[in-house]
What we know:
Layout: H1 8-13, E1 22-25, H2 32-40, E2 46-50, E3 66-69, H3 76-82, E4 90-92, H4 99-103
Parallel strand pairs: 1-2, 1-4, 2-3
Amino acid sequence: MYHNPVLLKESVDGLNIKENGIYVDVTFGGGGHSKEILKRLGNGGKLFAFDQDEDAQANILGDERFTLIAENFRYITQFLKFYGIRKVDGILADYGVSSHQFDQAERGFS
């Protein structure tokens, strides 16, 4: 298991998901928050996620409404413009530490 998000429901509730909204998860990681956002989005909704960590690439979600951008989210404006997005309905950022970082000593935490 990559990571179990703490306060998953509460943090996604705070986005007040619109069925056809456009959302961004700037700390994709294991994809827990993104999965929950996708559950609440309608067919016309869109979710973009950012994560430059190669380990996160293994967690890509097979959903046509989802796009993973394998870059640092500091480039959010440029990449969203590339995809034709000028405005989003919500951005989620989980700046907490991931259990994956502790469980894998080679990742710098031990």
